[in-house]
Write a structure and sequence with these properties.
This protein has 654 residues and is mostly helical. Helix content is 57%, strand content 8%. The protein starts with a helix and ends in a 6-residue tail after the last strand. The relative contact order is 0.08.
C-alpha cells in the first residue's frame, strides 16, 4: 500500500515492479534488522520474564552469533535495496538515519515511557518513505496516514505492555503501564486510537473528498477499536492476546478498506492526469515515457520538440510534470531592484538597445551618491537583492566597478549583491591582466554575493559571432562560471532567443549548460530571455510570439533536468505570458524589479516595477502558491520591515 501511496501521486510518477520489489525489500530487511537487534539487546531481560523466556534467543534455540549475523545482513540488504531498486537518491541518503531510528527503539524503553510512540513513529515511516522513494518529495497525505499508523501502533503496544506491568516495574523498565498503572495506560491507549480515527477523518481535508468505501472503512475500524478496548479491562487482562493479535488483524483489514477508498480517489485523479499526459502526439510517446520515468532527454529529442507539428500543450503538460515533481505547487518571487551604473559600452552587440557611445546625449554614469541612494531606497522598500549589470565603459578602471560593490556592501551589508555577468568579468580580467579567480576574489572581498546569468545569448559561434562578435565567447563564459562555482559562488544562466538563431542552436545552448551543471552543480536557475527588437540593429525581426515563449520555457524545463528552477522573467515575457508559463515548466517569476532599464530600452511594455501584492495575485490566479525567496533560494521570513533568510528551499534536484 505504501508503494501505491507514492506511485499514484499527483503529479503522476512512473513506477515499476522493480520499484515495488525495492520497497518491499526495504520494509522487510529494515524490520528484520530492527527486530533482530531488539532480541539481542533484550535477551537477558527476556530470559528473566516468564512470558518471553520461551523466545528463540533466551531459550537457546538460536545462538547469539546467528542472530547477530542475521541483523548485519538485514541492515546491509536494506541499504543496498535503497541504492539498487529505488528511482531517486533520497532513500539511500536517508537509509542510515532511518535504520538508526528503528534500532533506537530497542534502547528507548530503558530511558523513556514514550517507547511505544517511538515504535509507532518507526512504522509511521512506511507511507512517508514510499512516497519519498517514488516522488522524491514529502507531502501531506502520507504524513497524515503516517500519524494514523503511529497512533494505532502506539495504542495497541501500550495495551500489550499491560501484561508486563509488574515485571517492568520490578526491572526498572519504562512503559506507560509502569508509569501510569494499567487503568491510566488503557486510557492513553484509547486516546491514541481516538486520535488515529481523527487523523483518518482529517485526511480528506489535506487530500481530496474520498468515496463511500473510505468512510465505511473508518466506521469498521472504529467499531473494532471499541471492541478491542471492551475486551481488555483493568481488572481482566486475560484477553490481551486476543485483542492484540486477532482484533488487530481485522483492524488491518478495515484499514485496507480505508486505504482502498483513498486508492480509488488517487487512481481516478492519477487516471485523469495520466490520460492528459498520454493524449499526446504519437511521436511524443517515447519522450513522454522518458519524462515520466525521470530520464534525460537527448539533443535530438530536444530539437524535435521545437517542430511545429508537436503540439505546444502536450509539451507544456510534460514540462508541468517535471516542474511539479521538483517544486510542487510553489511559485517563487523575490523583492529586488536593479542598478545599471553606466550604459556606455565599448561593445556594439546588434541585439542591444541599452548601450550608448560616450558622446551620445543618452550616455550616463551614475555617481557614488546616487548609487548609495539606490541602496537606501532598496532597503527601505524591503528588497533582499540588488541586481547589478551595465556597460563596459572604456574610460573606467576595474577599481570603479569594484567600488560600486564595496560602497553598497559597506552601507547595506544585508542587501545581497548579484553583480557583473561573465562579459564584465572577462573585461575586468583584460583591464587588470589577472586571472578570473583573482578578479572574483577581489569582488567577493568587496561584497559580491553571486553572479547573474546574462551575457550567454546563444553559445554557438555561428550565431554568437554575428550578434556579439567581440565580447566574451562561450568558452570564456563557461570558464568564469566554472571558476565561480569552484569558489562556492552560485550563479544563474540565460539564453537570448527569438532573433537569428535556429531551434537547434537553442538546444545546443541548453545541452552545454546541462553539461556544466553536471560538472559543478553551481547554477540555481535558468532564465529564457525573449528578444526585444525595438531600438536595436535587428529591429527588422519580429518579437517572439507567446507560443514560442511558452514552447521555449517548456523545452528548457524538460532539457535542464539538473536545474532546480526555471524562471519566467515577466519583464521580457509580459505579465500574461509569464503567468501562463507557471504551467509550462516555470516555477519562478523573478521579483518586483525596480529600475530595470536594459529591456525597457528595447521596447518592453511591462511596468517598471511590480508590487508584492500584484505578484502574489498573479501567482494565485495561476493556481500556484506564492513563496518569497532570497537570491540563494532560502525562504524569506518577514517581521514588518525586517526580514531574514529562513530554511533553504529543497527540490528533488537538490
Amino acid at each position: 500500500m505504501a508503494w501505491i501511496d507514492g506511485a499514484q501521486a499527483d503529479p503522476p510518477v512512473s513506477f515499476s515492479w522493480r520499484e515495488l520489489l525495492g520497497i518491499l525489500l526495504c520494509m522487510a530487511t529494515a524490520r528484520s534488522c530492527a527486530m533482530a537487534l531488539n532480541r539481542i539487546l533484550d535477551r537477558d531481560v527476556d530470559a528473566r520474564n516468564p512470558r518471553t523466556a520461551i523466545r528463540h534467543l533466551p531459550a537457546g534455540i538460536l545462538s547469539l552469533q546467528t542472530v547477530t549475523a542475521f541483523a548485519v545482513v538485514s541492515g546491509v540488504a536494506f541499504i543496498a535495496s535503497t541504492a539498487l531498486f529505488l528511482p531517486n537518491r533520497w532513500p539511500l541518503i536517508l537509509s542510515v538515519p532511518v535504520l538508526a531510528f528503528l534500532i533506537g527503539y530497542s534502547w528507548a524503553k530503558r530511558f523513556t515511557s514514550l517507547a511505544h510512540f517511538w515504535l509507532g513513529a518507526a512504522l509511521m515511516m512506511a507511507p512517508i518513505a514510499a512516497w519519498i522513494a517514488i516522488r522524491g518529495t514529502v507531502d501531506w497525505p502520507p504524513v497524515v496516514l503516517g500519524v494514523a499508523v503511529m497512533l494505532w501502533v502506539a495504542g495497541f503496544d501500550i495495551i500489550y505492555a499491560c501484561q508486563d506491568f509488574e515485571f517492568d516495574r520490578d526491572e526498572g523498565l519504562h512503559s506507560v503501564p509502569a508509569k501510569l498503572g494499567i487503568p491510566g495506560a488503557l486510557r492513553v491507549a484509547a486516546a491514541c486510537h481516538a486520535g488515529m480515527l481523527l487523523a483518518l477523518i482529517a485526511l480528506p481535508w489535506v487530500f481530496a473528498p474520498l468515496g463511500v468505501v473510505y468512510y465505511v472503512g473508518i466506521a469498521v475500524v472504529a467499531v473494532l477499536l471499541i471492541y478491542e478496548h471492551w475486551l481488555v479491562r483493568p481488572d481482566d487482562l486475560s484477553r490481551v492476546n486476543a485483542a492484540f493479535f486477532n482484533i488487530n488483524v481485522v483492524i488491518s483489514i478495515g484499514l485496507a478498506s480505508c486505504y482502498s477508498g483513498l486508492f480509488d480517489e488517487l487512481s481516478r485523479e492519477h487516471g485523469r492526469r495520466r490520460t492528459m499526459i498520454q493524449a499526446t502526439h504519437p511521436k511524443l510517446d517515447s519522450i513522454r515515457d522518458k519524462v515520466l520515468a525521470g530520464e534525460r532527454l537527448s539533443y535530438d529529442e530536444g530539437v524535435y520538440l521545437y517542430q511545429p507539428e508537436v503540439p505546444l500543450n502536450d509539451i507544456g503538460a510534460l514540462a508541468n510534470v517535471v516542474r511539479e515533481r521538483k517544486n510542487g505547487n510553489h511559485a517563487y518571487y523575490n523583492i529586488n531592484t536593479h542598478l545599471n551604473p553606466t550604459n556606455v559600452c565599448i561593445y556594439r552587440c546588434t541585439f542591444c538597445a541599452f548601450r550608448a557611445d560616450l558622446r551620445e546625449d543618452r550616455a550616463y554614469v551614475i555617481p557614488d551618491e546616487q548609487i548609495l541612494e539606490r541602496g537606501r531606497e532598496a532597503v527601505e522598500n524591503g528588497c533582499t537583492e540588488m541586481h547589478i549589470v551595465g556597460g563596459l565603459h572604456h574610460l573606467k578602471k576595474f577599481d570603479w566597478y569594484l567600488n560600486v560593490i564595496r560602497i553598497l556592501h559597506e552601507a547595506y551589508p544585508d542587501l545581497h549583491l548579484k553583480a557583473w555577468t561573465p562579459v564584465e568579468i572577462n573585461w575586468f580580467r583584460e583591464l587588470t591582466k589577472s586571472s578570473y579567480r583573482e578578479v572574483l576574489e577581489q569582488l567577493v572581498e568587496a561584497g559580491l554575493g553571486s553572479l547573474p546569468g546574462g551575457g550567454a545569448e546563444i553559445f554557438h559561434p555561428e550565431v554568437r559571432d554575428k550578434i556579439c562578435e567581440h565580447k566574451a565567447d562561450a568558452e570564456e563564459w563557461f570558464d568564469i562560471h566554472r571558476t565561480a562555482h569552484q569558489m562556492g559562488l552560485r550563479s544563474n544562466a540565460t539564453m537570448l532567443y527569438g532573433h537569428i538563431e535556429e531551434p537547434w542552436h537553442r538546444i545546443d545552448h541548453l545541452v552545454r549548460l546541462r553539461e556544466l551543471q553536471d560538472e559543478t552543480g553551481g547554477f540555481q536557475t535558468f532564465i529564457p530571455l525573449a528578444f526585444h527588437p525595438e531600438n536595436t540593429n535587428l529591429d527588422h525581426i519580429k518579437k517572439p510570439s507567446s507560443a514560442l515563449d511558452l514552447r521555449t520555457m517548456a523545452i528548457s524545463r524538460l532539457m535542464l533536468d539538473n536545474f532546480d528552477h526555471i524562471k519566467a522573467y515577466w519583464i521580457m515575457l509580459g505579465i500574461g505570458t509569464a503567468q501562463l508559463a507557471l504551467s509550462y515548466g516555470a516555477d519562478d517569476l523573478d521579483g518586483t524589479v525596480r529600475h530595470e532599464l536594459i529591456y525597457h530600452d528595447a521596447g518592453a511594455k511591462t511596468p517598471e516595477v511590480m508590487s508584492v501584492e500584484d505578484i502574489c495575485r498573479l501567482i494565485v490566479e495561476a493556481g500556484r502558491d506564492p513563496v518569497e525567496r532570497d537570491t540563494l533560494y532560502h525562504r524569506v521570513v518577514r517581521d514588518g520591515q525586517k526580514w531574514q533568510s529562513g530554511d533553504p528551499i529543497v527540490t528533488t534536484t537538490t
